[in-house]
Amino acid sequence: MEKFMKTCYECKVDVIPVVRIEEGIKLYGLKCPKCKEEFYTSSQLLKLERFRDKPKRKFGKLGDATIMRIPPELIKKHNISPGDYGICTSVEDGILIVPVKEK
Ligand SMILES: [Zn+2]
User: Fold this and answer.
1) Is 0.85 surpassed by the pTM of this model?
2) Which of 17, 44, 73, 90 could be a cystine partner for 40, CB 3.0 to 4.6 Å?
3) Ligand 1 centroid vs 101 CA: distance in angstroms?
4) Helix H segments across 6-102?
5) What is the pLDDT of residues 4-51, one digit of tens each?
């Protein structure tokens, strides 16, 4: 990640990259090796805000396939029926599924 600061504001010691997993969400920041203070950009904190309180689903296994159940409220909201397709695209934070009607 890009170093948005070189040294700790307090200790003036070089900061080091740190990855913290908060509520299952990976945050990339910088840490002072002396006072242990961690620093994050607002975009990293927004990422946490964006995913907090969202329904979490576990990946499962069905034969050779990795599967995940979609929360029923999302199925209803997007009017998804069995037989519809989902176009999967890799995006920065994960996988985006765009439902497409069969006909
Ligand atoms: Zn420090």
Assistant:
1) no
2) 44
3) 54
4) 42-51, 72-77
5) 899 999 999 999 999 999 888 889 999 999 999 999 999 898 888 888
| Residue 31 belongs to domain spanning | 1-54
Instruction: Please state, in angstroms and rounded to a whole number, the distance separating the CA atoms of residues 92 and 59.
Output: 19
Q: What is the CATH number of the domain that holds 83?
A: 2.10.260
Residue 98 is predicted with a pLDDT of: 96
25 Cα–ligand 1 center, Å: 24
Q: Are 80 and 99 in contact (CB under 8 A)?
A: yes
Give yes or no: residues 49 and 1 share one domain.
yes
Distance (Å, whole) CA 8 – CA 18 = 14
**Ligand 1 centroid from CA 48, angstroms:** 24
**What are the structure tokens assigned to 61, written together?**
């296994």
Q: Give residue 6 CA to ligand 1 midpoint distance, Å.
A: 11
Q: Based on the fold, state whether residues 46 and 64 are members of the same structural domain.
A: no
